[in-house]
Each structure stands twice: as C-alpha cells, then as structure tokens.
Amino acid sequence: MTAPSPTFEFDGAAVPLQPGDTILQAAQRAGHEVPHLCWDARVSPSASCRLCTVLADGRPVAACVTPAQPGQRVQCHTPALAQQRLRLLQLLFVEGHHFCPGCERSGACRLQAAAARAGMTELHFEALDPDRRVDASHPDVWFEPGRCILCQLCVRASDELDSKRVFAIGGRGLGAHLLIDSPSGRLGDSALSVHDAAAHICPVGALLPKRVGFAQPIGRRPFDDAETRG
Ligand code: FES
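^ thats the input. predicted complex w/ FE2/S2 (inorganic) cluster below
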C-alpha cells in the first residue's frame, strides 16, 4: 500500500505537494490562483513584487519563494490580503505611467489583469508622473521605462536564459530604474536581440517587440476576462 501524498491547506482546500514545491507552484498546479507579477517558471524567483504574499500558518510570506510544507495552513484570498494587494497595485500604477487603453499590451498585461481582479477602480494615491524617457533606439524592441515595474524578469531572463546580462536594476527607492548594459546606456547599443527571451518576458508593456502591436483583437487577448477569472 502506498502512503497518501502529503498535502497542505490552501484557502480551506487540500493541495497535494511535490518535493521542492513552493506554495505558489503547488497551488497553481492544483488550479488555485495566486496573484503574482515577478514570478515566471522559466527563471529563478526574485520575490520583488510581494503581490503573492499569503499567510502561512498565520505568518505573511511570499508564496513564490516559500516552500510548501505538509499540514501547513495557507490563506491567500482574505479581505485583509485583498486590501493589501489593492494598495500595492495602486502604488505601482502611480509610480509609473500606466495608461492602459493606449498601451499595446492592454489585455495581455499582468499588472492590468491583477488590478482588474483586485477590483481597482481608482488610483487612491497621487500620481507621481516620473520623468522617464522612452528609448526607441533598438531596431526591433521598444523600451518604455514609465511602464517598468522593476519586477526584474528581463534581468533574470537575459542572464539565465539568454546568457547576456543586458539588464540590471540601479538606484534605490523611487529612484530605482532599469539599467541597460551598453556604451550609451540605450537599448539600441546593447546585445539584446528581439529573439531573446528577455525581449518577450516583460509582464507589462515596458519592453515590446516593435511592429506587432495590437495583433490580438479585443476579446481574444489573454486577460480579456481577467475581472471574472478566479
Ligand atoms: Fe512573489 Fe512577486 S510573485 S514576490
């Protein structure tokens, strides 16, 4: 007789565990939605956005880096966590330039989808309107720093998947920004290719391949039903 697989409790449901699972991985495999922005299965986690914060046995942890433990009680969708996520998303919106209807990534943007799922209808905070200039110097990739949420996915993809290290994060606090490794600091002088994973992994509309905008019609974009999905 084989022993039953270990499980933990996720919002009251039993979730099976596999060795090495994080809370986010196990919950997603079982069909539960864990809000996240900076996690992608293709690269190592950075735990930088904190949108995936859950309560594990009452303690707040980032689900994307916290190992799931047998018997653990995880709470993800509580009113208090929902409120925290809403404020965090509102902060991300006011720290940059996120005018969704005019963005090519609209309907395919994780930030926009997370805000819709969180029920965000207003910014709540004063918009900071940072002075960040578009970098259109690359022949095939558009860089709009005002949309960058510093998730570091392009940094990790360039390093771990493309073996190039085109990107890094510089500065601190509100001065933090994406750095480009090139003689001029502009994307056009960097080693980035439009075929690189880093050119496609951005969860928002900060890095966009040129000449493919609005390719999917409204209604068929990945997050068109974000506000109604789990
Ligand atoms: Fe876990 Fe961003 S997805 S901290």
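The first strand starts at residue 7 and ends at 10.
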